[in-house]
């Protein structure tokens, strides 16, 4: 059996997975997991890139101790939009800002005064939003000019880490498409757009195709960790592109959901959809591992529950997953609904209080028990996903008959069942480790061990369990959806 390292880094945790392939089936083992959260310092939110890098090396050492002494390759996938700078002499320039940093809000307002939202969307295919790379770069230009003066190269997060391991500077296709700086017609950086905004386009490292072998690991890494050189591959750098790669989605009549802190819902298309409706409804177009596009909407996911659990823990009320299940089962359904994508839920100081305040504002019954909050969140999420699915059908002109859910969020069985109930469609959930599996697939394809993504997905189906959810209580959910639409006027 041959082995590869898949580094799957999310906005709340990171892990190293060993992917084994015997020619017929994939095998996946988690070797190392660590927390990963933005660090608030001097009025900004940063990613602790040095800690992430050290944790990755810790994972390598653990892997070797477990007997995985010969690795064919490694690849890194992460969340989208964030980046770091490298100086002319190859050094890292500080910790990267997080997309949750508030400095992007004002820069977004300034950008759309120069380049209207409609033009930005037509050029890049990406929904104009304050979290996008373009806003972070503009904010740095306005507030931290010295940083730009010292920078030689901009590398997006997975490629920044790839550089630290290989010494090769390149930005991979899928992660580049998340930036709002990529011109999808030209399939290259939008230098004209950057010129309009007086942004330094010369800093942008060249874009390479998914699966490009960058080179071997640096000698310093090999000596420190005690390994022979390992191929560093620029696999699908965006975790959502990885998740989609692992899901057994047929292009026709099926949607995908990548489920975690955020939930991304979409379909695969050959060309971006940049109509006025797509812009108005908040859809975006990002690259796939096989060179096409994901027409999707970035929606709120389990962040709401994570933040409630965090607030309750600080109050001395830790809740286990088993207790969470019991609370949801015992709570009366459809007492309160929220719009989970309302900006007030993006990063509040106290999530339960924010939900309660929202219900007061919308003249609804306020949640009281922990179960009330949990049910409110999960039911509201599922109803919002139905809204997204219906809009996808209108944008593509094609019916969606099945939904494929993957990622860690599918371990919440209520999320999967409620999604089936609300959308009134069959749901197939699996695999759980979709991002890490997709990461490894792009490596095995690059190494010539698999023919293409279609073959890879067939192997995934044979290698990992899938669970089907059929719609239940359709009349109740239909009535709830009517109330949801009326309340939020979508």
From TrEMBL:
The keyword DNA repair does not apply. One of its GO terms (biological process) is glycerol metabolic process. One of its GO terms (molecular function) is ATP binding. Residues 3-244 form the Carbohydrate kinase FGGY N-terminal domain. Keywords: ATP-binding, Disulfide bond, Kinase, Nucleotide-binding, Rhamnose metabolism, Transferase. Residues 256-446 form the Carbohydrate kinase FGGY C-terminal domain. One of its GO terms (cellular component) is cytosol. It comes from the Bacteria. Pfam families: FGGY_C, FGGY_N. The keyword Transferase applies. Belongs to the FGGY kinase family. This is Yulc. It comes from Neobacillus vireti LMG 21834. The lineage of its organism: Bacteria, Bacillati, Bacillota, Bacilli, Bacillales.
């Amino acid at each position: 059996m041959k082995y590869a390292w898949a580094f799957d880094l999310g906005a709340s945790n990171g892990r190293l997975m060993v992917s084994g392939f015997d020619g017929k089936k994939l095998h996946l083992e988690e070797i190392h997991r660590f927390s990963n959260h933005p660090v608030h310092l001097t009025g900004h939110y940063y990613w602790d890139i040095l800690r992430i890098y050290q944790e990755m090396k810790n994972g390598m050492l653990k892997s070797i101790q477990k007997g995985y002494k010969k690795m064919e390759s490694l690849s890194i996938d992460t969340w989208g939009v964030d980046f770091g700078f490298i100086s002319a002499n190859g050094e890292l320039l500080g910790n990267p800002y997080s997309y949750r940093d508030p400095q992007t809000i004002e820069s977004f307002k300034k950008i759309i005064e120069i380049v209207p939202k409609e033009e930005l969307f037509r050029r890049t295919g990406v929904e104009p939003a304050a979290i996008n790379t373009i806003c972070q770069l503009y904010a740095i230009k306005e507030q931290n000019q010295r940083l730009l003066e010292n920078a030689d190269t901009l590398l997006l997060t997975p490629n920044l880490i790839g550089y630290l391991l290989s010494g090769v500077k390149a930005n991979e296709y899928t992660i580049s498409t998340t930036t709002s700086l990529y011109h999808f017609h030209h399939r290259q950086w939008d230098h004209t757009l950057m010129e309009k905004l007086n942004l330094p386009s010369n800093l942008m490292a060249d874009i390479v195709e998914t699966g490009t072998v960058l080179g071997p690991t640096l000698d310093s890494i090999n000596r420190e960790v005690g390994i022979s050189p390992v191929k560093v591959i620029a696999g699908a750098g965006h975790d959502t592109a990885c998740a989609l790669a692992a899901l057994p989605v047929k292009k026709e009549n099926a949607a995908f959901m990548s489920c975690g802190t955020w939930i991304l819902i979409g379909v695969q298309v050959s060309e971006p959809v940049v109509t006025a409706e797509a812009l108005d409804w908040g859809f975006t177009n990002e690259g796939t591992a096989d060179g096409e596009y994901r027409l999707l909407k970035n929606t709120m996911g389990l962040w709401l529950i994570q933040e409630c659990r965090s607030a309750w823990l600080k109050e001395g009320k830790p809740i286990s997953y088993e207790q969470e299940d019991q609370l949801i089962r015992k709570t009366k359904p459809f007492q309160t609904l929220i719009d989970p994508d309302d900006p007030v839920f993006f990063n509040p100081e106290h999530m339960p209080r924010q939900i309660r305040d929202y219900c007061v504002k919308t003249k609804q019954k306020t949640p009281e028990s922990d179960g009330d909050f949990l049910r409110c969140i999960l039911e509201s999420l599922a109803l919002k996903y139905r809204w997204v699915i219906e809009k996808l059908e209108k944008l593509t002109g094609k019916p969606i008959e099945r939904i494929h859910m993957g990622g860690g969020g599918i371990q919440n069985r209520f999320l999967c069942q409620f999604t089936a109930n609300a959308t009134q469609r069959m749901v197939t959930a699996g695999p759980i480790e979709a991002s890490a599996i997709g990461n490894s697939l792009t490596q095995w394809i690059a190494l010539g061990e698999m023919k293409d993504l279609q073959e890879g997905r067939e192997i995934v189906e044979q290698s990992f369990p899938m669970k089907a959810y059929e719609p239940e209580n359709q009349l109740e959910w239909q009535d709830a959806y009517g109330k949801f639409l009326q309340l939020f006027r979508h």
